[in-house]
Every structure is written in C-alpha cells, then in structure tokens.
Amino acid sequence: MSQPEIASGQGRSNGQAQARDATELRRGAAGRSLMERFAGLGPVIGLIVLCAVGASLNSEFATLDNGLNVLTRTAFIGIIAVGMCFVIILGGIDLSVGSMAALIAGCVIMFINWAAGAFASPLMAVIVGTVLAVVLGAGFGLAHGLLIAKGRIEPFIVTLGTLGIYRAYLTYFADGGALTLENNLADLYAPVYYGNLLGVPLPVVAFFVVAAVGAVILNKTAYGRHVQAIGSNETVSRYAAVDVDRVKILTYMLLGICVGTATLFYVPRLGSASPTTGLLWELEAIAAVIVGGAALKGGHGTIIGTVVGAILLSVISNILNLSSLISVYLNAAVQGFVIIVVAFMQKGRR
User: Which of 136, 122, 96 is CA-nearest to residue 264?
Assistant: First the structure.
C-alpha cells in the first residue's frame, strides 16, 4: 500500500474517532440536561406528593380555607426567601434576617405610637410606618453589603455579628418585654394583614408579586446575570469587568428590602414585637431556597424553586398540625431532616 493511501486511511480513522467522540459528548450533554430538568422538578413533585398525603390523612387539608391559611403563613418567610435566593446565588449568606425583622418591627411600632400624636393623623402615622419598615431594611442591607464588599469580611461573620446586635437592641428598646401598638392604631393597621384582594389575603398577594418581580430581575436583567456569574466564579467575573462590589451591595440591600416588606405585613398580625419575634426565620428562609434547588455554594437557583420550597416546608408543618403522626414540637426536626436530605441529593448531583 502506498504512503498516500496509508495517510488517507489514517485520516478517515481519525475523523471517525472524532465523530464518535462528538456524538458521545452530545449524548452526555443531553443526559445531563435531562437530569438537571428532572432535578429542577424535584421540589414541585415533592409538593404534589405531600399534598396528596395531606389530603389522605385529613380531609380538612384540601379545603380552600386551609390552603389560604398555609399560603398566608408562608408569605413572610417566602418574601424573605426571595431576597435570600439572590444572596445564596451570589455565593453569600445572611444569618441575621430574623433578628433584623424583629428590630424593624420594634422600630416601626415605636415610630407609629409616637407619630400618631406628632402628626395628628393616626392613618398617616401607619402609612409612614410601613414605608419606614422598607427603608430600615434597605439601610441594614446596605450596611451588610458595605462590610462584606468594601470591608472584605466574610458574610457569615458579618451577619452572625448583626444577628446578635439587632436582637439585643430590640430587647433593650422593649426593656426585656414587648413593644405593642396602641389599640386604635392596631385597628387601623390590621387590614394590611387581615384584608384581602378578590378573596386572596394581602400577604399572599404581596408574596407572589415580590416573587414575580424577583424572577424578572434575576432572569431578565444584567444585574441578575451578574449575580449568577459572581456566584459561579467571582474571579472570572472581575476579569469580565463586572462591578462585583456594587452587585454585592445591591444584593444585600435587596434582601433587606424583602425583610422590611415581610415585616410591614407581619406587624399587624399581632400588633407587637418581642425578643422572640422572627426567631429562626433565617433558617427557614435559607431552607426554602435550598429545598427549592439552589446550590448553597452559589451560582445556581431559581425564584420559582424558592417559592415552591417555602410552600413545601409550610405544607409539612400544616400536615403535622392536622394529623397526629408525631408531636407538633417535632415540626422543626422534620424540616431539618428534609434540608439534610436535599443537601445530600445536591451533593450526589455534583
């Protein structure tokens, strides 16, 4: 066989090998894509299964009133979880949101009680108080962002510190007891929690509006793409001319705004704030994001998954409350097991 014929045969052999490799890569990518899509449906499938189990255990579970009750109780954590989703996708964490909510609630109550007399208009005092809740949340979030981005302090350390600071100040303002809205002011503020829009409680409406806005920001804006890019690889993002510090500051401010928004709906529920207000909210918000499919290491997560995760955890508590399978005191333990199982499954996928 001549040299050109040998070379031609080798060329065909190499081409065939490259074609086989390319085909295998495409099949592998298709397989991974299918697995990722299935994993993304995991929280939804889990929620459907839980609802079926709940309906079989107690007929009252499937009623409209119970469904609205579950969604209303989910709303506060759900709104916070939307902001937490951005922070976790960024590769950060915030352990202070429960304490932040407690301090914001206390400050809003003190302000409204004072402003009702100073403004000579109780209604105006309540309206300004709701705005104050969001402003305080943004301010606390800004402080976190600056300490993390400009101060180069780990998010865990910053928010662990402010967790204690916020709750200590609330305890100080309340003198170890509770801060309470005056009766006439509580009546004026009550419709914010107990009111409804076309039969849907206002906190639930707010939850879904916040989630919808969050989904648009995350998926349709340059800022949202930058959040995901930084969570995937911060160093590469800096080389790509992304203003990493600015994005971090904005992200923690966004979470703070979500905490303030949740708090303004929570205050009229009881009309008071105490050192136990918002206790463990940070763990529930983080759990909702993780159960919803977000990677704790950052770079991946969805608002829809977070919403489903928050509802799923509330459904678990609701089922345990309606049934007598185990003590209601073990609700948090069951949620904890769910979080660990989901984290283990994520580890397996990686």
Answer: 136
